[in-house]
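Format notes (please read before filing issues)

Several people have asked whether sequences and structure tokens are stored in separate files. They are not. Every record keeps both together, in the order shown below: the sequence lines, then the token lines. Line labels are part of the format and must not be stripped during preprocessing.
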Amino acid sequence: MKLVSDIMHTHSIDINADVGEGFNNEALMPFLSSCNIACGGHAGDEPTMQSVINLAKQHKVKIGAHPSFPDKENFGRKTMDLDDSTLLESLKHQVKELLKHLEVEKEILHHIKPHGALYNLANIDDRYAKVVAALMKHFGASIKLYAPYQSRVAEIASQEGINVVFEAFADRAYNEDLTLVPRPVNGALITDSNQVCDHVLNMVRHDQVKTVTGKTVSIKAETVCIHGDHPKAEAHLKKLTECLTRNHITIL
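Then the structure lines:
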């Protein structure tokens, strides 16, 4: 028979954020258990990568690569007309740039999480999902993929034997098909820290999310992301950490 204290600690979650994108990495890192470092596609350069790796080491935060369409002008948020081979080679190059610095610091690459338009396309489009799966296979089975539950990229990657960690978003509203409500739409961003906590607790404890239409749908979340460019990112992370600890949810 399980003790009450055992039952209370059966839930756990990883907290991640996209970093190295020109925002306040120092303020966010103490609250994270993993991070996704921009590696030159949409943001990031060698000094920034090195600086963020040092911060992650200092706070014992797992390190991931955050590659994207090679488009700094649009911050990786627009689709680029690239053939699959060209896109894959760009993504490989970006991840290798981060690996170069990790090797110097004797740190490992824990995961890969695509950024922006590439992330969104891979969730719904087999073509881009297969490019991401090919990227993962190139770097080996030890590296995990952060991807949404029931996304095409998660399904295709799983079929290829890739270890998928289901990601959900702490500060974004969901549609009924588990896609994110587009940023320009009213209510797409969750700006109240208490609502962020309720949103995450519902996903972690009950495997469900309340959508923008008010309907509740099933979801699985093993890692939750706070957007580093959100003006209240630090406040959200502080409140979320307190909330999870108070509710006996372990931060991995």
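For reference, the curators noted about this record: The longest strand covers residues 12-19. Residues 53 and 102 are 7 Å apart (CA to CA).
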